[in-house]
Design a protein that fits this description.
The structure is a single chain. By secondary structure, this protein is α+β, with helices and mostly antiparallel strands. The protein has two domains: 6-143, Fructose-1,6-Bisphosphatase, subunit A, domain 1 (Fructose-1,6-Bisphosphatase, Chain A, domain 1, 2-Layer Sandwich); 152-263, D-Maltodextrin-Binding Protein, domain 2. Helices cover 39% and strands 23% of the residues. It has eight helices and twelve strands. The chain has helices at 6-31, 36-61, 93-97, 169-179, 192-200, 214-226, 241-244, 255-263; strands at 66-69, 83-91, 104-111, 114-122, 127-132, 137-139, 142-143, 156-159, 185-187, 206-209, 230-233, 247-250. The strands form two sheets. The chain has a seven-stranded mixed β-sheet with strand order 1-2-3-4-5-6-7, sandwiched between helices. It has a five-stranded mixed β-sheet with strand order 9-8-10-12-11, with helices on both faces. The chain is globular, with a radius of gyration of 18 Å. The protein starts with 5 loop residues before the first helix and ends with a helix. It binds D-MYO-inositol-1-phosphate. Residues 70, 88, 91-93, 160, 190-192, 209, 211-212, 216 line the site of D-MYO-inositol-1-phosphate (IPD).
Length: 265
């Protein structure tokens, strides 16, 4: 791993510990011959167990920081109100439940309203994506850089599609109607944190999604930015990116053209 700050090392350690627990449970899920409800409950327990591991690691090391996490009933305000951890112990829960090895642990650190470090760990592929403000983005030992593609027709994008009656379905279908004819393809792999990490790695040329939560995207945003990519709200007039949960990310060459397509209503 590249040299990082003490905080980054703590985050990586916590992500690895949670990853070990999740990998063990994932093998179980693959073998589980139980009803969907049984598997769902099992995955929910795996998710909570991973979160408990992360919380123990982070809050022991930095007891004054705040804590915002997906599987927590409410946010914990820290003694130090300027810093908080933003955690999704298992991003890509549906993939996990269905035995598909595409899910991740996502941990971000926010300071004075700005994300200053992020870790997205894909334990099934042993890929640790991480970044700190001003020091670049990394995948294991290698420096990350967003793709250099500048032609929409050669670009591959990722998105997330609303399910179960999500309110953004019409908007997402309109996006696809405009984007698909002018690009090389759109993927929907089901883990927002990894979608952003893949933009940083130049695997995807861009990504957009609506209806996300802070814990889905906080770590991924800094990883994309530190890899030289752009991230912005779909609605620039909306709330802050983390609160709004509707974002576009892409390499700098494609960003404006891509954003124009997604922002057209
Ligand atoms: C979900 C995933 C998915 C995205 C959903 C998220 P979760 O997070 O990131 O890709 O489309 O909007 O809620 O529930 O698996 O942590």
């Amino acid at each position: 791993m590249a040299q990082g700050s003490a905080n980054l090392n703590i985050m990586v350690k916590a992500a690895r510990a949670a990853g070990r627990s999740l990998v063990k449970d994932f093998r179980e899920v693959e073998n589980l011959q139980v009803s969907m409800k049984g598997a769902g409950d099992f995955v929910s327990r795996a998710d909570h167990a991973a979160q408990a591991i992360i919380k123990e690691e982070l809050m022991t090391a930095r007891p004054t920081y705040g804590w915002l996490a997906e599987e927590e009933d409410s946010e914990i305000e820290g003694k130090d109100p300027t810093r908080r951890w933003i955690v999704d112990p298992l991003d890509g829960t549906t993939n996990f439940l269905h035995g598909m090895p595409h899910w991740a642990v996502s941990i971000a650190l926010e300071h004075k309203g700005e994300i200053v470090a992020g870790v997205v760990f894909d334990p099934a592929k042993d890929e640790m994506f991480y970044a700190e403000k001003g020091t670049g983005a990394w995948l294991n030992e290698s420096r990350l850089r967003v793709s250099g593609r500048s032609r929409m027709i050669e670009a591959v994008f990722a998105t997330g599609l609303p399910f179960g009656g999500g309110k953004y379905l019409p908007a997402s279908l309109q996006d696809l109607g405009r984007l698909l004819p002018v690009c090389a393809g759109v993927r929907r792999w089901g883990a927002a944190a990894l979608d952003l990490a893949y933009v940083a790695a130049g695997r995807y040329d861009g990504y957009w999604e609506r209806g996300l939560h802070a814990w889905d995207i906080a770590a991924g945003i800094i990883i994309v930015r530190e890899a030289g990519g752009f991230v912005d709200a779909i609605r620039p007039e909306g709330q802050s990116l983390l609160e709004d949960g509707q974002l576009i990310a892409a390499n700098s060459e494609l960003f404006d053209g891509f954003a124009k397509i997604i922002r057209t209503r």
